[in-house]
């Protein structure tokens, strides 16, 4: 998708967007951009996608994004090995462990309707990334592994990136209108921009992840699980199921790496496991850090480059996927001349508070599976707020009246009513339960109404609905990322709001980056 030309004898390519980092977030960003018709080049210095299982739980909200991209079914098929592994387990050893009951919400505030058209998905990162890579290539993205960003400059028109082919040793240049840095927690791009990070820093003690192979299918049969808490005093930790039979990750809270891991693992398993093969030992430290700015000129941070957090329910990966979804449509609108560049200021205004919220919630949750959350902490978010995109944007590409601040979206319960700045509530729109309100927007905007239909507006299809969260006579203006941007009684005013938001007339200003509380 890139145009080749020569400048001063140097081999140069041109792409509308350069994505640095070919992991989950970078590949998702490429897919979102191609979904909007944007030319995109992804460069990754590694030779392959992640060899480590890493993140394994992808939320309803992430699956909704894959649904919009036409990939939800493909992802679910790739995840078939872990189908039915939704339970947690706990015991002295794996052999003695018992499944824990599935936690289900009950009592006041329990949602009576389904939260999403998509179920969450258990799939390891090393299985998902190749799926996304191939999908990005099939969608027309240029994806180059073994390619390292050496340096970049930006001006008012473009970003010039100096790249190196690590196989041939040849350098080349790519010019892009924008750059997305999805280059990980130690992001060289973020450092080059001089963007600091704020947060709690290191959390808890150093840990070690031991990735190993062993055929434990018969050991866990009838007690299949996603995560098993091992309580043996000589080998405490947690065992994560990567494929339900052969591939496993043992997470030890002891940060020492030079241990007799085969012996310790057999103690934790409680069985001889004669075929046990340790593939890697990876030390790590849980941290909570969020970039003080997500944007600098034509460069935008996403994923771990913007936020790192403890691995509670793969919050970092899911938050990064939402970053890409939010940024992609805005870049496309600006590149296509449909929106003013000021629209891009809303990326930091929206996603930095969302990143802080996710990182804070992950940091405060316990890894004790028998006690999934401190009962005394009444500020912990409802699990569906985290899993179904229940965080509310209060600033950004929104037009909210003064009444909005008097009725904010709750976080300790999940009861979406279509407030401005929130993801549109899911409701099925047909008897076959195949078409959802989530499907009404993306990659374009949508206007939902129960009243008179306004005059046609280019780029703004109108849908007349009868749903419980939209009272008679009301309208909702829904953005391409499924977020409600405006709500009111006058359909004509909705079209004015649509134009104002695309022109950046919403009162947002670039964030200077003070720490968030």
TrEMBL record:
This protein's UniProt keywords: FAD, Flavoprotein
Region of interest (Disordered), ranges: 401-422
Required cofactor(s): FAD
InterPro entries the record matches: FAD-bd, FAD/NAD-bd_sf, RIFMO-like
Gene3D superfamilies, sorted: 3.40.30.120, D-Amino Acid Oxidase, subunit A, domain 2, FAD/NAD(P)-binding domain
Pfam families: FAD_binding_3, Rng_hyd_C
Keyword Transcription: no
Entry superkingdom: Bacteria
Keyword hit for Flavoprotein: yes
Positions of the FAD-binding domain: 16-361
Protein name: FAD-dependent oxidoreductase
Species, as recorded: Streptomyces orinoci
